[in-house]
Amino acid sequence: MTSERGESGTWRAVKAALRLCSLRNFATIACGVALVFLPVVQGPASSGVSLLPYTPLYPHQAHGYQLALTRLQHNVPAQHWLAAADRALQSPEVVELPLRVSAELGGPSAAAGYRFTVPTGRRLTVTVGGDPSLEVFVDLFRPTAARAVRVAGRLPRSSEPSFDIDAIEGGDYVLRVQPTLGVTGVYDIAIEATPLLEFPVTGVDERAIWSAFGVERDGGRREHRGVDIFAARGTPVLAATDGWVTRVETTGRGGNVIWLQPLFGNMRLYYAHLDAQWVAPGDFVVAGEPLGAVGNTGNARTTPPHLHFGVYVRQPGMRGGARDPAEFLR
Q1: Is 294 in contact with 256 (CB distance < 8 Å)?
Q2: pLDDT, tens only, 267-311
Q3: Is 83 in contact with 64 (CB distance < 8 Å)?
Q4: Are strands 122-130 and 306-313 parallel, antiparallel or unpaired?
Q5: Which of 195, 226, 250 is the last residue of a domain?
Q6: How far, in Å, CA of 173 to CA of 168, rounded?
Q7: 66: domain range?
Q8: What region does 171 belong to: left with phi over 0, alpha with psi -120 to 50, or beta?
Q9: Is 225:212 a contact under the CB 8 Å cutoff?
């Protein structure tokens, strides 16, 4: 009798506990118990933490990583080499372009940095000379508020003497020159910035630009989104760079027009008021190749023959992107 009452009391206690516990609490308790026994099922825990391997992004970084693997805390020359690399980026010599410099680098603390400003719409070319057997890292960086970002460079002992980038937006750059640890030698560096685009009309130059970018049109209702280059009717209009012809059409405002997509950047080139169009969509053209002829079609019928030349740079979240073509041609 006592046993029946005890069992009945136990069962009543269990039912009372279940009534007090919500489904969420029950699930939480069950998960907790499972986690307690999980290590027993899986076996002993790992004694270490698995990390992703470090991957150098460019040759100079790889060389520094090799030095760091050789007990860097006891390798004073390697410490000096890495410190010199940082100083060249953080405290470079400020120079103007074009730059020609010849200097000797040697010792663990040897590294040179040059900071300069590149105008909008330029092709920046860096040429390396000197002792061909000298193992020297030449890296170009774009400094930002957080850090310097490498944008181009040259391999040590490379057979290519130069490299270039297309600086559509322009801005500040830093070039770092540093030999491998323990190497001494003389290097020559030349840095120059040239117009990104060739002049698009045969036989004339920037003096033929008579209507500039941004001037008012239609009584101030709009702005001029290009430059007008005046020349005799029929004068050949040229590809300002290598690229693909994307559109060849006739519009009310531009008359006979051609759109060209260069091989670099998010840029488009616009040719308008043409007397003739000599290319078709999908054609690939090289810089200097004739595209058409100067005219005054479209809304330019009352003006002397000229080429309306436009440069458009696409930017995320923005429409239009018209830029002053003169900046890319000077």
Answers
A1: no
A2: 999 999 999 999 999 999 999 999 999 999 999 999 999 999 999
A3: no
A4: unpaired
A5: 195
A6: 13
A7: 59-195
A8: left
A9: no
Domain CATH number, residue 187: 2.60.120.380
| Tokens standing for residue 259 | 């759109």
Assigned domain for 29 exists:
no
Mean per-residue pLDDT of the chain: 83
What pLDDT, on the 0 to 100 scale, is given for residue 36? 44
Structure confidence by residue, pLDDT tens digits, 3-25: 444 455 545 544 544 454 444 45
Question: Domain count of the chain?
Answer: 2
Residue 39: pLDDT band with limits 50, 70, 90: very low
* 306 contacts 288 by C-beta, under 8 angstroms: no
* Residues 6 or more apart whose Cβ sits within 8 Å of residue 76: 108
Return the structure tokens found at 133. Answer: 């057997």
CB 54, CB 65: distance < 8 Å: yes
Beta-bridge mates of residue 233: none
What was the pLDDT predicted at 213? 73
pLDDT at site 138: 95
Strand partners, 163: 126
Local confidence band at 69 (pLDDT 50, 70, 90 cut-offs): confident
For residue 13, give the amino acid letter. Answer: A
The dihedral through the CA atoms of 208, 214, 215, 220 has a sign that is positive
> What is the DSSP-derived secondary structure letter of residue 102?
E
Residues 189 and 261 in one domain: no
State the distance between the two ends of the chain, measured CA to CA, in whole angstroms: 109
d(CA 308, CA 183): 55
DSSP assignment letter at 44:
S
Structure tokens at 279: 């290319």
pLDDT tens for 83-142 read 999 999 999 999 999 999 998 887 767 899 999 999 999 999 999 988 777 889 999 999
Helix or strand holding residue 63 (H, E): helix 59-69
